[in-house]
Amino acid sequence: MKDIVVGDIVKFVPYYASKGIQGANLKIQMPKYECLGLVYKTYVIRGIGHADLMLPNRGKKFVSFAGIEMVCRIK
To answer: Engineered SS bond to 54: which of 7, 38, 43, 62, CB 3.0-4.6 Å?
Structure first.
């Protein structure tokens, strides 16, 4: 699991997701946003990390760790 914690500044990155019958194929998922986000809460659901992000327009987004990458950490 990625080392993403509350207070991290993250960017959206492309990632592979399983598609097709029983997930036999991998398809690249392009990021929906071209901006940075601030992590304000993290979760582990079925062993997969997720985070709540605050976007620059003050919108909130729930994403998987697979689609984000840490840019810097605020302590």
So the answer is: 38
How far CA 58 is from CA of 2, 27, 37, 63, 67, in Å, comes to 25, 30, 10, 16, 19
Question: Strand, helix or coil at 49?
Answer: strand
- Condensed to tens digits (0 to 9), the pLDDT of residues 48-68 reads 899 999 999 999 999 888 889
pTM (2 d.p.) = 0.79
Q: Are 36 and 70 in contact (CB under 8 A)?
A: no
Q: What b/e readout covers 1-40, taking b as 16+ CB neighbours within 10 angstroms?
A: eeebeeebebebeebeeeeeeeeeeeeeeeeebeebbbbe
**From CA 58, how far away is CA 60, in angstroms rounded?**
7
